[in-house]
Design a protein that fits this description.
- The protein is α/β, with parallel strands linked by helices.
- It has six helices and 13 strands.
- The chain folds into two domains: 146 residues, Rossmann fold; 72 residues, Alpha-Beta Plaits (2-Layer Sandwich).
- Helices cover 29% and strands 22% of the residues.
- The strands form three sheets. It has a six-stranded mixed sheet, sandwiched between helices. Strands 8-9-7-10 form a four-stranded antiparallel sheet.
- The radius of gyration is 17 Å and the shape is globular.
- 49% of the residues are buried.
- The structure holds ribose-5-phosphate.
- Ribose-5-phosphate (R5P) binds next to helix 2 and helix 4.
- Belongs to the ribose 5-phosphate isomerase family.
- It is an enzyme of class 5 (isomerase).
- One of its GO terms (molecular function) is ribose-5-phosphate isomerase activity.
């Protein structure tokens, strides 16, 4: 393994090693980076006899949990989680995030909101000063299907630079989320006030959930190109080895 994949693996392992303890209920995020974290968690369960239960944030996360023979639970049985570990598409200096590149932000935000701690693992490409600087595809916004046209018009009126209905790959038509909704990607350029923008977007009728995660993460692990892992917390806003 080399390059970006190695960086993802290192970050995810570091997050799992530092934050998962015996007896915990763990929220499992979605995407390609957390997949390495689930493999690491399974290793620890086998090697250390760790007892954990895992709550997924998507169909993909559920598959990861079951394929790695980890105990699967849900928010009905575990409405309070000790930690949620997830990936991100972009992370700013204050640990605000853009998520939802894989369309899973709604369940991810619900699960994160039920966890005492949200921890993020990401490769070096996700590190950014301000949201919207590196991730140019736009903020993923899950919407109720009947509302997608008026919502796209409202986003344009809010001065979004690009507004796109996410289309499926290998299927004609739109990308349909795990919740049966659609996704609009809206790029607002560099986002100066993520909390204000999130509140504005949440105020549009038909918006289910945005991929802006403001003030939720407590620590981010970045896998670097040179094989090191750096971290960022809200208190030390800079990077430390
Ligand atoms: O919807 C997808 C999730 O928010 C992912 O956590 C995010 O897109 C990062 O994915 P990856 O680890 O594949 O870059």
């Amino acid at each position: 393994m080399a390059g970006v994949e190695k960086a993802k693996d290192l970050a995810a392992r570091a997050a799992v090693d530092e934050f998962v303890k015996d007896g915990m209920a763990v929220g499992i995020g979605s995407g390609s980076t957390i997949a390495y974290g689930v493999v690491r968690l399974a290793e620890r369960v086998k090697e250390e006899g760790l007892k954990v239960v895992c709550v997924p944030t998507s169909f993909q996360a559920k598959q990861l949990i079951t394929e790695n023979n980890l105990p699967l639970s849900d928010l009905e049985n575990h409405p309070q989680l000790d930690v949620a570990i997830d990936g991100a598409d972009e992370v700013d200096d204050d640990l605000n995030l853009i998520k939802g590149g894989g369309g899973c932000q709604t369940q991810e935000k619900i699960v994160a909101s039920c966890a005492k701690t949200l921890v993020i693992c990401a490769d070096y490409r996700k590190d950014s000063k301000a949201l919207g600087e590196a991730w140019l595809k736009g903020i993923p916004i899950e919407v109720i299907p009947i509302a997608y046209v008026p919502i796209m018009a409202k986003l344009k009126a809010m001065s979004a630079e690009t507004v796109t209905l996410r289309m499926a790959k290998a299927k004609a038509g739109p990308c349909v989320t795990d919740n049966g909704n659609l996704i609009i990607d809206a790029h607002f350029g560099q986002i100066k006030d993520p909390a204000k923008l999130e509140a504005q977007l949440n105020g549009i009728p038909g918006v289910v959930c945005t991929g802006l995660f403001v003030g939720m993460a407590v620590k981010v692990f970045f896998g670097q190109e040179d094989g090191s892992v750096t971290t960022r917390t809200p208190r030390n806003a800079g990077l430390s080895a």
